[in-house]
Amino acid sequence: FKSKYELCCNMIKENAEEFRRKLVEEIEYCPMAKSKLERLIEFHFQYFTGKGNIFQAIYGKSGDSTVMIGHILKVA
After folding, report:
1. Distance of CA 29 to the CA centre of its chain
2. Radius of gyration of the chain (CA)
3. Distance, CA of 58 to CA of 53 (rounded, Å)
4. Is it the case that residue 56 has pLDDT exceeding 60?
5. How large is the average pLDDT for residues 39-51?
6. Alpha-carbon distance 12 to 69, whole Å?
7. For the chain, how long is the longest CA-to-CA vector?
8. 10 Å Cβ neighbour count for 29?
9. Which 8-state DSSP code applies to residue 52?
10. 22 pLDDT more than 60
11. Residue 36 confidence class, pLDDT cut points 50, 70, 90
12. At residue 59, what are phi and psi to the nearest 5 degrees?
């Protein structure tokens, strides 16, 4: 990677693709719109409240501590 910014963007893209793939897998076999929506909401909460999620760092939270993405990019 030519820069930390490029590395960060690539990591975000890869994680977003993984999130989308997992989400599609989760709702693929739900027969009704209501069950798809319920599963989507449940998946969303499980994914974004779990540990080790890059999106927590992007949005400024990781567990009980605040993470500053700008600071990560400057330090990394």
Report:
1. 22
2. 15
3. 9
4. yes
5. 80
6. 12
7. 47
8. 9
9. S
10. yes
11. very high
12. -90, 5
